Each structure stands twice: as structure tokens, then as C-alpha cells.
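Q: Can someone sanity-check these two? First one:
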Amino acid sequence: MTSNVGPTVRRRRLGQELRRLRQEKGMTAEEVAEELMVSQSKISRLENGRRSISQRDVRDLCRTYKVEDKALVDSLMQMAKESRQQGWWNAFGDVPYSVYIGFETDAASLRVYEPQVMPGLLQTPEYAEAVISGALPEVAPDQIAQRVQVRLRRQERITDPLTPLRLWAVVDEAAMRRVVGNHKIMSDQLEYLVRMSHEPHVTVQALPFGMGSHPGMSGQFTILEFSDESDTSVVYLEGVTSDLYLEKLTDVQSYSMMYEHLRAQALNVDQSRQFITEVAQDHARRHGEG
């Protein structure tokens, strides 16, 4: 049950195993909560991997489910211990989207649609600072700097020489035209986007305004996929005060189909590089005029 993955995915795997044991016992989450004298929401959070799972939790649940396989109990207890280890992002303090970072850190591939901003994994430091400070005008400068550092640390997955993240990004023209910071920052950002698109594990497609309506008009989304078949794909929807993680097979399939339509409507790779370069040159010209 254990492998070289981070605490977020470990919690998820452990939660899935605990759910399986509950279902095999024929108990509802409400019944388990009543027997252990805890809230039903706690049982749900333990099973969906959004909450740290203590060894005591595992022990109590295994007793409730009358698990007699000592090797299985020991394995679950070890998973609980390892799932409470800290990820690299904990060194940066309270990171609001730490659950997502945990998934991203262990993912094998990402499919991203961005309608408003550049993909976080492909942002320059200057663009990242400008977009974060613009989106969070009431956040202190030191917190802005912290978030920028976290974003840059996340980008190391792209350049990892052993297991680089496979990234496919469809970027709307609006994200390229919107002046984040200034025209110089935008020109540099778009040139960087083109350079990164030449990496063998990075694919970037532009979705121009002229393509008209498309399935992604409801907003940004990311599909995370993992190398281990036991780790089902996750759809991530970013929110202002909370994020949404969709793991049901039907939800993942719906978003995967949406993404296929987006890729089909977007410019191909070579056309996208040409298009992005032209927008970058437009920003550079406007910077020169300023």
C-alpha cells in the first residue's frame, strides 16, 4: 500500500481504504460516527483524504469494522503515520491551497485550461508577483512574496530531470491580452511561454477570440492524473474562499471530454507559438511607445 508519494496522496489512499472497509462492513458513515461518538463530517473528511488521519483514528475504525487481518491493520497504521509527514510547502507557512499543491506534487500529468491568467507553472517571477498582488490587493507585501516563492518552487516539477511533470495547457487569448503589471512584463511572459512550449513534456495551445464559444467558457479547471492506477484522476476548480475537487469517474470523464473539445478548437502547437509571439510583439511595441 505504501510507495514514494507525498502526504496528500497517502491520505487519499488511506481514506479510500477506510471507505472500502466501512462499505464491506455494511455500515453508513452516520452509523460509524454514532458508534465512535464523533461527527459524521469527520468520517467523511477522513474518507475523502481532506483531513489528517491519526493512528488512533485508524485503530478505532479498524476495531469498529472488526478487521482481523493484523498485517492490514499494521499497514494502515503505517500509512496514517506517513500521511502526517509535512510536505515541502509547509516550510512556507500557511499556504491556502496546500491540498492542491500536494496533488500537483505527486501528479504525473496536468491538463490545464486558463481563461484569464497564465498557467501558474509557466509564469515568470515578475508576472507571478503582479498577478498575485492584483488578485489580492489587501494582502501584505511579505505574504505576496511568500506566495510567489511557493509558485516558483512548484515550477521545479517542470524542470525535474528524473520525473518531469507532463503539462498540457490551453490558454485563452484573454490571458495573453490582459496587461498584468505592464506591457514589458507581458512581453517577457509570453516569450517565456513560447520557450517553455519547446520542452518535450510541455504543450501549449492558444485559444483565440475568433474561435467563438467553447466548452471552457464556464471557467478555469485542471485535470490531475497520477502514475499509479489506484490513484484516480482529480478535477480541480479554484475558488475565492474554497476550492473544489471532483473525483467521481463521471465528473472526471465530463471534464476530460470538455478538454478534448478545447484542444480541438485551439490552434495547433506551431500556430499557437506564432500567435503568442505576435501578441508578445504587440506588448513590446506598446511598451516602447510608453
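And here is the second, same format, sequence then C-alpha cells:
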Amino acid sequence: MEQTKVYDCLILGGGIAGLQAAIQLGRYSAHQVLVIDAGFGRSTLCQQYHNLLGFPEGISGQELRNRGRRQAESYGVEFVLDTVTGAEKREGRFQVVTLSGTGYTGKTVLLATGVLDRFPDVPGMVPTLGLSVYVCPDCDGYEIQDRKTVLMGAGRTGAEMALLLAERTRDLTYINHERSDVAPELLHLMAEREIRYEEGEIVEVQHTEGFIRSVMLKDGRSFAAERGFIAFGGNEVHSRLAAQLGVPISGNRHVETDPRTKQTSVPGVWAAGDLGVHAEQVSVAMGEGSIAAIWIHKALSPCYNQLNGGDVEDDS
């Protein structure tokens, strides 16, 4: 079903970057903005963020999203719970279609489709994420300081993560869940740093109210833990819609943008958050969402375009 309304901006993805952009655009009180969100993503899995300004006690990704949506809605931003399956530019407008078969039209597009971490579907894994099992050493390396830690991962990706985490704790075990190859030099470096290396299929993450207690393997072995990390590699970068719109995709499947404006090489298309080539942190996603929204506003503003000859890059 095709909608006749033309939005000033379609924000594809209602995670942290998309929500921050929606709030910024909504506060201009001049644009009709629609956020199309599948309702699930990396931030919905994180039980607690502890590295954000203003939340020393921590806040869950879902609660942050809930607050962000309410805040954006207070400025008139519209939301649709659906999954965008296709996008194209037609007759100077951007057309998207969703899983439900509904089409939407926008003058500009912000891609905030993000990344989803790859990890095995084992009992106990999801309830611990962000609470006692982490994915980002920059965000949460602090949480494992001097604690008994089990890194659950695969191959080289896990080995490299283990070497980074060894800066935080001397009680570290790396379980290569997939038994994938680890280069001899990495094995040597792990041995030098006294990182315990094991191979075996993980069948359960045992926990108490989200706090990891042990990791069970299929062969019956159990490894006690106070904290955990995951590093399986092969994370899913949601760049398919970007490719459909003609946006170049980098070698690691992320989208490159102008560092100043967050606009892609395709006029009218911006990208923010973990989809982009940057440090994958919530605070960074927020900043990128705001930057993108500011420049989208400029592109949409008749006054700004008149003053700058239609060139959003002319601002000093």
C-alpha cells in the first residue's frame, strides 16, 4: 500500500543514532519526520550501559530507546514499527517499502540501520548481555578489571580480543567455541600473557539474574566466571539498503560518510551510528545522529539554501 504523504526525512532504524537524529530534527518544528524501526537491534540486547554521561548507575538499551521515542514523539516525530525491505530514488524522491507491503516517500533519508553481533544461540547468553557479558572492550573493559573472566569467541577474532582484555585482568580464559583456526603467533602471545586457551562447544551460560556464574561445554567441562566477553566475528552490518540506494560500501561492509556532515556520497542520503565507519559506541552514535540531523535540516531549509546557493557544504 503506497502512502501519498511525502516526509521531509525518513529515518530508517530506531536505535540510538536514529532516535537522537529524530529528536534533533523534531526540535526544528519545521519538518515532517518518520522513523521506521524493526523494534530490535544491538541496543535492545544490552541490559546496562555504564559509560554514558548522566547515567552512572547504568541504563538499559531498551529503556534508552523507550525514553528517546517518547522524547521524539513529543516534538511531532512519527514512528512505524516495521522492517524496510527495499529503497530507491525515483523522480527526485526516496521511496521505501516495508515487510508489511507499505510504501513511504521522503525528500531525504537517514540510514541508521546499525549492526547486530553474531553469537551462538545458547541458553543464558542473551540475559547476561550488557549486564555481565560484554562485546566492546572500549565500552566495558572497565567492568572486568581484576575479575575472573571467560571470553567466548571464535578463531582469530577471539584471540585478538583476548589479548586486548589481558590488559584488564590476569584471570582470563578464551573458549574457542567453533574450534576455528588461531595462528601460532597468536597462541604464543596468549601463552606469554598467561591467557588460558580452550576449545569446545558452549552449550550454556549459567547465570543468576543476568550475572554470569559459569560457562558449560558440550563435553561436560565447566569454567567459572565473574564476567564474560564475546568475540565471534562476522557481525551483521545492515548495509543492504545503503547499497540499494547506490551508497558505496567499504571492505568491512560499513558505510563511509563525510566526517563533517555524515552525508554519504549519494545526495540526500545520510548515515549515522554503527552502520558507519567509526568506533561503535552509544555516545558516538548519539553524536553522529545529531550531526546528520543538523545537516539534513540545512539541506531542507529554503532560507539556508538561499543564503548558501543550495550548497550544504558552504557553512563555515
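A (reply): Looked at the second one. Residues 282-300 form the longest helix (19 residues). The chain has a mean pLDDT of 94.
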